[in-house]
Amino acid sequence: MQLPSLSYFIVFIILVSSLSSCKLSRFVYHNFADINDHKIFPARVVAKGETSFKFPYADLERKPKSIKIDNKSYDFESFLREHKSVAFVMIENDSIVYERYFNKYNDESIVPSFSMAKSITSILIGIAIDEGLIQSVEEPITNYIPELKKNGFEKVKIEHLLQMTSGLDFNEGYFNPFGEVATFYYGTNLRKSIAKLKLKREPGLEMEYVSGNTQLLGLVLERALKGRTVSSYLEEKLWQPLEMEFDASWSIDRRKDGLEKTFCCVNASARDYAKIGRLYLHQGNWNGKQIVSKSWVEQSTKIDSTQGSSKNYQYQWWLPTENGDYMAKGILGQYIYVHPTKDLIIVRLGKDKDDQDWETILSKISEAW
Asked: Which residues cross the membrane (predicted)?
């Protein structure tokens, strides 16, 4: 006797759900990226240092009166609240001019970075090059991941990964439980998954945004660190030197010998994310100490469309306009936005984008500032 299709589906769900450690069961249960995902994955703590830098508050609060969408104006704060924001912080001239938290979140709340972690990974690659742990962006990644030689990766350079021009064959479909991005996000063996990656075109021909590039950067960095974890490097080179206020964490694929999910999963507070923006606003310098080279910051934020790269994406940072602004961004509407000529940093964290074009909204706020 044949089971009806609904019964097949129920049996499938039961079987999948019984495999608690399986990537597919994680996907079915959690379905899609969520602001609470940092609670479901194992992670390494990234500890703050003994001292904390705190942005002072400006004497007078300053904020846009309204937001204009499709020729209709909305009250600024109501718009933030109604469109699933949980944090919105604006910093001008090193002072907080506006700070609000919504939906029971506060200044201590930890929020996943999602793809803002790509920009953080890029900073760590820059520091590793400054320190000579990595020779240059011109190095082939097979110098660090030799197991990919058999898959034809000899021509793929570190810069190709930074620019998303590697030609990587990677399914970025977030609703496909069998695609690579689901495997990388929910899976429990990133190194094994990386070893299976293929190319679909020659590197250096075309920019295609896929998270596999940044995860490859993460493995390059781990191999260059020779025994240290990526999380400990973040702690030593960024979290403590930038005098973060709160401990952070970096989600890993599994508890034992796990690898950081460098394409997605730093977990931190809003003001500490803002300090990443402040570091770049000051061209890699933090209160007199050069954390990452000025040349790395410049290369990461300049418009360049040579060798297949996109003029609006450089070294894991987005360039939303041609006015010198740049941003780190995550899938649920997480943003670290920087406009150097305005001396402005904006951090927006949310439960979702809620179908809003936040890139344009942030750019318009800065233009009118």
From this structure: none
Q: Rounded to 10 degrees, what is the CA torsion of 304, 306, 308, 309? A: -10
The answer to whether 261 touches 222, Cβ cutoff 8 Å, is no
The CA distances from residue 177 to 147, 188, 197, 331, in Å, are 26, 14, 17, 17
CA 210 – CA 195 distance, rounded (Å):
16
Phi, psi of 164 (to 5 degrees): 60, 35
d(CA 251, CA 260): 6
Spatial separation of the C-alpha atoms in residues 340 and 36, rounded to whole Å: 32
Distance of alpha carbon 29 from alpha carbon 15, whole angstroms: 12
Task: Return d(Cα 359, Cα 4) in angstroms, integer.
Answer: 47
The pairing of strands 72-75 and 66-69 is: antiparallel
Mean pLDDT by groups of 10 residues along the chain of 369 residues: 44 42 47 87 98 97 92 95 98 98 98 98 98 98 98 98 98 77 94 97 97 98 98 98 98 97 98 98 98 98 94 98 97 97 98 96 94
Residue spans of the domains in the chain: they are 32-367
pLDDT of residue 9: 43
Distance of CA 183 to the CA centre of its chain: 17
State which CATH number among 3.90.76.10, 3.40.710.10, 3.40.50.11750, 3.40.50.150 fits the domain covering 32-367.
3.40.710.10
Prediction pTM value: 0.92
pLDDT at 178 (0 to 100): 66
Residue 164, Ramachandran bin (φ over 0: left; ψ between -120 and 50: alpha; else beta): left
Q: What is the DSSP letter of 231?
A: H
116: which 2 tokens?
A: 């803002």
Burial 85-97 (b: 16+ CB within 10 A, else e): bbbbbbbbeeebb
- pLDDT attached to residue 33: 83
CB 324 within 8 A of CB 339: yes
The answer to whether 90 touches 77, Cβ cutoff 8 Å, is no
* Residue 81 DSSP class: H
